[in-house]
Amino acid sequence: MVGREKEIKELNRLYDRNRADLVAIYGRRRVGKTFLVDETFGDRITFRHAGLSPADQQAEGLLSAQLEHFYRSLKEQGMDHPEKPSSWMEAFYQLECFLKQKDDGKRQIVFLDEMPWLDTPRSGFIQAFEGFWNNWACHRKNIMVIVCGSANSWILDQLINNHGGLYNRVTYEIKLSPLSLQECEQLFTDNGVRFSRYDIAQSYMIFGGIPYYLGYMDTELSLAQNVDQLFFKGSARLADEFVRLFDSIFDDAEMARSVIRLLHTRNAGFTRKEIIEKLHLSNGSRISKVLQALTDGDFVTKYVPFGMSKRAVHYKLTDPFCLFWLRFVEDNLGFAEDYWQQRVTSQPAAVWRGYAFENLCFNHIPQIKRALGVSGVITTASAWSKRPDDQEGTQIDLLLFRNDNVVNMCELKFYGIDFAVDLEYYKKLLHRQELLLGEISPKCAVHSTLITTYGLKKNEYASAFLKVITLDDLFEKP
User: Fold this and answer.
1) Distance in angstroms (rounded) separating the CA atoms of residues 109 and 95
2) Mean pLDDT within 369-378
3) Nearest residue to 447 via CA among 471, 425, 419, 469
4) How far apart are CA 123 and CA 287, in angstroms?
5) Model's pTM, two decimal places?
6) Residue of 415, 387, 412, 418 whose CA lies nearest to 399
7) How confident is the model at residue 137 (pLDDT cuts 50, 70, 90)?
8) Which helix or strand (DSSP H or E) is residue 378 part of?
9) What are the structural domains of the chain?
10) Coil, strand or helix at 401
């Protein structure tokens, strides 16, 4: 397995201790939660069960289908003469009986995958699970229950932040993040895929470090050919992924997609008020739940732009897969099987790379801090734009506010060659720095910083940047 060293170490530590454990693992769909559990524990799992996707079932028969599926899992894994349960209370009682039947004093792992899918409307699932854990499992020192789910809001609301019978019952939580650039490179190497770091970075900007997507790369094809094969060729593996991604994890999938499409139209994002106005929605709990679910699911980043009040919260689309899909895939399915190969050097592709590289950098702040030599310094990241009425405005891609009284004013440039500063750009940098100095504390210094692919071309204006960070720096471990 690539990466996940910390998570594997923690799971094995929990396995080795003599107490009941309830472990919640959550993260974006396709990020590798199930794979992590399988690779860590393998045949040490006593009972495993995965919920049925609601996207593939009729709503009125979903509870019956889930119970039937649970019954089959018990039967296939060795329970003697189980009966099909008519409720989740019965189902978890049967699970208790099964675990007693299998108990030889060793650690028993119960793995419930895609747990949010089991909690169908009016099914009583969460109450039954609460009874299973509180009345039985938590009193058995050899029980370790691992629950997974891609619906992060459900895991957070129903388990980790539960205020009812499951309050403070989760003994350990793991939020599984996408792979870093360094881990993507390792995955490609292990799979025999030969890409330059320039193309590995682009693959991250398209697929977002999601191992499920990256695992489909054909070793004999270029990155552009792989993109065509996965998105645009007939029967492409990811042709319907955007729809399935939302249908499988959001209760209100259509509204979630509407919000995502709106956020895609402005790189800086929108406030809640703007989202409501532009989508003609009511200001109620429905939009609140969708925005929270999108944020919890790491599709959207919630932030306050520098210089604005804390009430000016913006929601910004940051999921690379969704950004690429909406910009290039959705309206061009079936257009041409070599669509991306034809456009990979086009101006729209170059513009997309600029925005996508910004997201890549925001997702690698620890690597940027390491390159700056300030890994141990508390740092806040933000973007900034300023448009005064009486002078030229400005926009800064990334600001790093450090507790050592330094602000790194970062310019982010994804170039195929060394970046060169000319006189016009030099003046623009000085103007940005002057505006920024007027907004921050006088005790702080501003360090102009370039984050780019290959480096900075030496000329009479190169001194504009005090520090240059390259793609190689972003490929380092944090």
Assistant:
1) 12
2) 95
3) 469
4) 24
5) 0.90
6) 412
7) very high
8) none
9) 5-175 (3.40.50.300), 181-239+333-358 (no CATH), 243-324 (1.10.10.10), 364-474 (3.40.1350.10)
10) strand
